[in-house]
User: Fold these one by one.
Assistant:
Number 1:
Amino acid sequence: MALSFLNFLSSDLGIDLGTANTLIYVKGKGIVVNQPSIIALEDNSDRIMAVGQEARQMLGRTHQGIHTIRPLKDGVIADFEATEIMMREFIKKANVNRMMIGRIVVCVPSGITEVEKRAVRDTAERAGAREVDLVAEAMASAIGVGLEIDAPVGNMIVDIGGGTSEIAVISLNGIVNHTSVRVGGDEMSHAIIQHFKKNFNLLIGEKSAEDIKCTIGSAVALEEEIKTEIKGRDLIDGIPKTIEITSQEIREALNDPINTIVEAVKLSLERTPPELASDILDRGIILTGGGALLKGLDIRLREETSMAIHVAEDPLTCVVDGCGKILDHPEQYEKVLLKQKRSN
Ligand code: ADP
Ligand code: MG
């Protein structure tokens, strides 16, 4: 009786712990946290100065006493302690009392090692979860976009996140094959930084590069090409400078990372068993993750693969939406949860 009363009061959470963004879904409330996966700490004391959006604003703007950390790299935990701090802070922002957390469903990339899974599980437990379940990100986003994941048909999901692009073929509640490349949105922003360094001796910040990518970056020629200005520091005379840039040149700068993603999709199609490949031909490929928002990426993939490409309605939230559905309908999605070998 006491236990069921506790269950009634406790909150179940779905967490998309992404390299770029962390989202938290609270059962019965919806998505309550959607913040960059960044924390800012004071150098000597490691006191938390800011998390999420506020910490992102500090990126590249910190003075000597503060440093910013992105605790995840390539979809997995790179800094255990920082991830734990970040998760706790976000759960606080979600207005959930850590003593009252019931179940947490967390997404992890396909192909992560047992040790990496353990790290995610431990982090969620230390954040207060009484029960932790892991689910593959591709599976969660398929559920999030509303695919019939338990049907004997193949679906291909291409998720372009911050650190990686993951391509997965799903059928009958499982992942048939997956391909992952360590190229995603960060690499695109990095390519823009390199472009200005190499061709203009101009140093631009990470945040400016990302803003440029999102506003004028593209994967195919635009009907109307865009011009804008960018500010940076001249590497020769050290003076701040503004130059005019065009969407054409940014597209060129993005060419390498985009090609890597396109090639990975093609490779994945080649690896797909024929019956499932023919399903994908019928149904098309679904693009998720923030990178799916790059202008013309869908057109570029369509041109290169001859497949229909559908950008998810909400590419940045479909993973956490999937976690939410798993929490809302536990029996229906029991089968998609990842089994973990117990180490103790
Ligand atoms: P992760 O799951 O790794 O946290 P997300 O799915 O949240 O990643 O996607 C974040 C990435 O998407 C970032 O690199 C961000 O710059 C990129 N992104 C977001 N919006 C756009 C946009 N409009 N155009 C291009 N890239 C975008
Ligand atoms: Mg993601």
Number 2:
Amino acid sequence: MSVKVSTSILAADFANLSLECSKIDKSNADWFHLDVMDGLFVPNISFGMPVVKTIRQLTKKPLDVHLMIVEPEKYVTEFINLGSNIITVHIEATNNLNQIINKIHESSLKAGIAINPETPISDLKEYIEKVDLICLMGVNPGFAGQKFIESTTDRLKELKQLIISYGSNALIEVDGGVNKDNFQNLKSNGADVLVAGSYIFNSNDYDTAINTLKL
Ligand code: DX5
Ligand code: ZN
């Protein structure tokens, strides 16, 4: 089965955001991956609600919103109302994950949990049966264009086993450092969704880059 590709807009040319989004909208990419950063949970500030709202107007494809913010419970309703389809919060960012997942599900959206490279996979156990997606970070969150951390592959195998052992339907999304050299390995070890930013936006031909990841 082909993986889904979720295109990280963080690496796009924001001076031409409308054109960039239109290219992705017409491509075989499955989702738009929107990286919201607050400068607190991660050492970088990206964009927030106005940009999510704008991109919602530029595509009908699902918006896969990755919140890298502290206290996500304060903002989740707003991201629901902006037209997100999948909302992912970090396990490290809150003590109210159950409440957040419930709120997302009450609005019939998909709920995801993102996990940083240093956080044990076993921490996901208590949530694995109720979430729709686990976003396994392949880099420390904060910036596009970082090198893939190789130990992510072992973590991916562990996560896949955890999902199988609990009979969970959660999709595994790998985020950060995905490119043409590692996507096959990620796919064969259980990745269902590949997030890619730089690999797509630094290429000369977005369609070819996206189609390569879907091979
Ligand atoms: C990292 C973000 C990623 C990143 C992916 O903090 O969550 O989504 O933008 O970009 P690349 O594919 O360039 O690593
Ligand atoms: Zn992301």
